[in-house]
Each structure stands twice: as C-alpha cells, then as structure tokens.
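Exercise (ungraded).
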Amino acid sequence: MMETATSCTPMKPKDYKSGVKPVWCPGCGDFSVLMALTKALAEMRLAAEQVALISGIGCSSRLPAYLNVYGFHSVHGRALPVATGLKIARPDLTVLAAGGDGDGFSIGGNHFMHSCRRNVDITYIVMDNQVYGMTKGQASPTTDPDWDHSKLTPGGTKVNPYYPLVIALASGANFIARASSSDPNGAAKVIVDAIRHPGFSFVHILSPCITFRPEQRDWKKMVRPAPVEATSNPVTAAHRLMTDDNFFLGTLYKGNRPPYQPDLTPVIDDLSSIEKDFEL
Amino acid sequence: MATIPQTGIKPSISIAILGSGGSGVMTTGSLLLDVAGRAGWYGMMTRSAGPQIRGGEAAALLRLSPQPTETHKDHFDVLLALDWLNADRFVSEVDLNAQSLVIGDEGKVMPGAIAGLSGNHFELPLSGTAKSIKGGRINMVALGALAAMIGLTLEDVIKVLTQSLQRKGPEAINASISGIQAGSHIVDSLPALPTIGAAQATGRNRWSITGNEATGLGAIRGGIRFVAAYPITPATEVLEWMAPTLQKVGGVLVQAEDELASINHLIGSSFGGTPSMTATSGPGLSLMTESIGLAVASETPLVIVDVMRGGPSTGIPTKSEQSDLNIALYGLHGDAPHLVVAPNSVGDCVFTTQWATHLAETLQTACIMLSDQFMGQTRAIIDRPADIAFVSGGRQLASKPDVYFRYAVNDSGISPMSLPGTPDGQYTGDGLEHSPSGTPSSRADDHIQQLDKRKRKLDQFNYGDHWALTEGSGEMAVITWGSSTGAVQEALATLRAQGQEVRLVSLRLLSPIQPERLQRALQGVRRILVVEQCHGAQFYHYLRAFYQLPGVVKSMAIPGPLMIKPSDIYHELQSWESV
C-alpha cells in the first residue's frame, strides 16, 4: 500500500482509541485484537483520519466505535462490500475490514470469496471464536460438528467446519496470515505486514469467546509460530494450509498479484462529446 | 371499442416489423427510426422478443409522427414480416384494423393467427430481391421498401446506413445500398398510407436515445461517479452505457458478485464522498432493501434505479409493469423515510435521474427511481433535454469542527457530513440507532430524535415544481405516474380536441408525499381516474392512503405485459362523462 498517509508526529496506540467502552464480556479475546490493531496503526504512524475501519454485525463488528479512525458499522455480512466500495472510490485511504466468523464466512461468505478474487488493497481481520456470541451461542461455520452446546443444533451441527485460510487461498487472496489474541504483539506485527502488502490481505485471528466457549481458554497453550517462512508459491501454501491444525501463527502466504484499482483520472472535461453521440 | 380519431390529434404512422432471430429486424427498425429522425420526424421504437437468448422471434414496433410521441397507438398501419416463423406469438401485441397493410414475403404461407386478423394482405418479393443481389439481405430490402412507403428519400436512408455500417466495410455497405434501392422499387403496387403531415427541420437539437441511456446520462449529469451493479434485465443497458462513459469522466462501474454486494459497494463509496448509484430490477431491488435501510439510518446518499418488469418473482423479465411501487415505498423494515421518484417519459429519465442524484446528495438518504422496461428499452426521437443545473446541489460538508457530531440534531434535519481524510472529523457511520455523535444507543430519546430528524429533512425540503407534471384544467382529472403518462396524455389530447377540458397530474415525486401540492392541483376537480399498469392497483391504494382526493375516484389498474392504450383511457373517460 501507499505509505504517504503517515502522521508527522509519533503516535501512541491510545491515540487511536475513541474512549467508547466496549460491549464485550470481560476476558473476551477481542480486547486484545483492539490493542493489537492500535499498536499496528501506531507503528505505521498512520494519521487517524486517513484510516477507515468497516465492519458488519456481531460482537467483534463493534470494533469501529472503539477507534477514532473513520468507521462504518454496516449490516450483517456486508463489511467487505462496503470496504471494497470505499477503497475503489478512495484509494488514498487505508481501508480495513473486521468482523467475526459468522459475519465473514456464513452470511458474508460469498463476499469473502469474491473479495479474495477481486484483490482490492484492503486488510480483512476476522476474529474467529467458532460461535455466534451476540445471539447467545449458536454454531458458526467454523464450529466443530460435535459441539453440542447450542439449543439450535441438538447433538452438534454434524456438518464439517469451513477452512477460511484454504478458501482464501483458493479464491485468490494475496496475503494470508493467522494470529492469536493471546499474543497481541505478534498479532500487531502480522497486521502491519498485512496492511503493507498490496491487494487483499486476510488476517485470521483466534479470539476466544470465554462466555460460550470457555474451553477456548486453552487455545493460548495450543498456538505456536509456524515453523517456516511465508511462501509466495500457492501450491506450497495449499499443502501447508490443508495440513495445518489451525494453530500455526504468522504470515503463511504472500502472493504477488497486482491489486484491482481502476484509474479514476478523467479524460474529458465536459459532457459535450458524450452527448454528441445521441445527436441525429 | 371507440377508436381515437386520427386527424387533428396526433397524426402518425405505426409500423411493426417481424422476423425470426438473426433476420435483422432490430437493425431495420433502428435504421428506419434514425432516417425518419433525420428527416425531421419524431418517433419511437420498442422491441419485443421471445424468451430465447438468441434466435426465436423478434418484433420492432415503430411509431413516427411530426409531433413528439412516446406511446403506441391502437393499431399498426403496416405489419411487415421478413418471415412468418412463430409470428403468431405477437398477435396480442400488434393490433391491426381494416386499413392496415399486412405484408409478407412472396410465396410464404402466412400463419393462421395472422391471416385471421383484419387488414389488407400483400406479398412482396423480399427474399427473391435479396437473392438477386450479391451479399443482399432481406432486411435491407425491407428497409428500402418501408422507407419508400412512408416517403423517406433514398439519399437519407443511404446516409444513415453508410454511417452506421461503417465498421462493416465498403462491400457490406454497397450490398446493403443495392438492397435498399431494389426494395424501394417493389412497393409500387401497394396502396398509399395515410399522410401524417410534413416532417419538421431538426437542427442539431434532436436526439435518438433510449430511456436506459437517458437514465445513465442523467446520472452522469447529476455527478454520479461510482456505480456498482449486477446484470439484470431490463436494467443492463443503463450499466452498459455507463461503464465506458464513467471511465471518461473519472468514475468507475464495478460489476459486483450480487446485488447485496453492489448496494453495499455504494454505501462504501458514498461514505467516501463519491456520488453513487446502482441500476437493477425488481428481484435485485428485493435483495438490496436491507442495505437501503442502512443508507437511510446511516444517512448515506445513494441512488437506486429500478427498471421495473413484470413480477412477482422472476415474473416477465422482458416486459413492463408498474408493480414495484409498493416495495419501493414500503419495502424497508422499521420507520425508514426515503425518496421515491419516477420519470414520466424517455426524455424525462435524464431529468429525473439527475434530480434523484441531487435529492439523495442534498438530503443524505437513499433515493429509489422507478423507471420501467417500456421506458427503458424504448428508443425515441426527442428534443435535447435541457441540462438543469441545481443551484444548491451537493452535500453539506463538515468544516474542521471543534467537536464533530455526525448526526447532530438541528432544524433542517440535515447534519454536515465529514469525509474520510478530514482531520478531527472522524465518526462511525452506523445502522444501529445512535446518539448525535454516532455512538450506538438504544435510548428512547436518541431514537425519537433521530427518527424525527430523518423524517424532518425530507418533509421540510422544497421540491419545487418538479414534484409532478401537471397539464390542463377542468373538473375531470387523471392521476398517473411513470410510463403510463404517455398514453394518458394522448387520450387527454383527444378529449381536449373534442372540446372536453381535462387535467393531468403525473407524480414524479412519490415519496415523501406532497398533500398540499396535490390538493392545489386538484382544486375544483369532481371526478378522478387513477391510471396505472399494475394488477393490484398499488398506486390507487397509495393515493387513497395518503391524499385527500376530491369527488369520485375510479381506479384503472391494468397489469402488464401489454401497455395501456390511449384508447382504453379515452373510452373510460368518455363513457364516464356520458353517464
């Protein structure tokens, strides 16, 4: 991305906070993601008014109100189309999209696929807790088939979970990484890399829901850095992503596809040549 | 059924050209319309086709007149078939009378359904003549024949043809010219058509344009620079015209993965400060409604053009109907005041789309514009539509404020918008109910304040004379909207020519309602006919719900796919009068 939008003065993470108190439960992983994001913005010294954060609906989608960048809290599943429209119309801005696994992979699943394919220069952060928290604990597309704690799916969903990183790669995302809310510094570093990398960057963050999935507290013991550097070879990446156990952290794939950005320079000054086509 | 007297009202010639797919029906029709336009006539051409993607049957339906015309009359003076394959499909669309000339190719058997219609039947050696010319095509022979029948000069035909076939090279042009010349000589045996009066000199101010192109132009004139859309019949031509045009003016058209994406792309681009629009039809509008509500709640300007087609569901994609009024007015959940406007003619698509953009931008909300298949896909010869420069156009932008409240509550209800990039103007746009600062809020006082504000800004705005097209006087009135207006105007002109005073009110602004204005327009009226192309009388019920209508009110609600005829309206009014 363009690095022109930097602030003159050094920024601190707290400079990016709005002061609005989050609605999240105490212990929610999303607090760490908020912290990681403000650290990343501070490290990049981005002027707050040059950044826009777009979200959909869900616990994690409340994020924009907690930052003092430009924000848009849209409707369920539509963060990516809103972010895409904004970035295409305003390529000068740093555009981020954020949300949860239900918002991004279920109701917004088609947009996820097509945003990867379109490869607009935006960074998409998904806080995955494998559950719908805001509606009080239903299964999401990333929930294991035998998780039987929801009244909506007695005995479990019996449906295999969705592998977002694999889908992202197959659909053409240009940057794929995984981070964990248990390591906000590591997450901040990944977010900086993602924003800097041109095209559509997908950052999958394991962010436990301690209210409806208390067992996810153990995630912090299970995560570990990926043993290899990021690859730019999609075949290698496919093999790694298909065989990883969802707990390897770090940047896993960095592609080199040019981003989609139409040229918005006018070539005519007035409409007379256009209107002439209608003359008899 | 009473028929409209021809003389003294709108003299015109109507021609139906039929043929199987690939026979060149549409080319013949378009060229004939352009030649007539150059010669100084006004005119229109509608297309009719079967459901096949390619092939099947096609009909080009033309009407030419020395006066502006945007509605078909009761009957066609000429039906010319390049071939008769499946021509019987068009029987319901092509009415003939005893004087109509029905012309087929020599030696080809006319289908029973056509043979049973009234009119004088003739055969012309269309394919025979085409075969006698190297590279000759039957549709060019037909073009020559039709041009000669209605008195267009060979020079004019050749001039238009040469220009439009330029890309096909000299060989194709010469073969076509030979076909046209030969075609002009085979019509001597036919009876003369009624004369419709002299064509008028055109100058440089006459245009040939479709409603869908006019919609695109109005949008560009209004400042739209971002379009996101998903292809859908019959709105696609709006997009096809806009995509290359936007590139010239520094804008862009994004083909989205679906309508959910396209409407939300607009929210993003408009949030960023770019005037934004989409074009769709009923099914697409249904998919978009959730985020149109988001635009209303977050006060994000956008224009949604719905080129209506027969519904519900997939319905009749290639035919017109005015039955999306209800979803446009009431489709959003919650109390979501927004703008709904409708153009009343092909030329008015330019103005109304420009106006829709102006209103959406000024009032920071969603504006749905209801065009339809008939208006959108009709090509008409019209006077160049004036470019209305709106004085107060554009958004009210926030200057650098000390403390910025995006949804500040004020008298006008319009709170200045801050664009991303503006220091100290940061806010979060939200579909959640919010406080004036934009912070999510479920408090009762915030909800009522924001509801009031979003309604107030629409109610208090001065829409001026643009709210409706009003014509005439008298104690009888017709209230209508959209593409039904043309047929109503022609029926009323007939009545007026017979000495009957009658008023027209065609609503361009459907939401917010304008009760005082309509009351003034209907002062002294005792009988009202409400005309719409809709089975459920949606417009009639809307008027009944929101307006005090004086006197006796009758509903004339006829569904598509056939257009309401001027004579149907004329008959309705005349028989009402004589009671």
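Further reading is listed at the end of the chapter. For now, observe: Chain A has one domain: 21-276. The beta strands of chain A are 51-55, 70-73, 94-100, 123-128, 175-180, 201-206, 224-225, 248-254.
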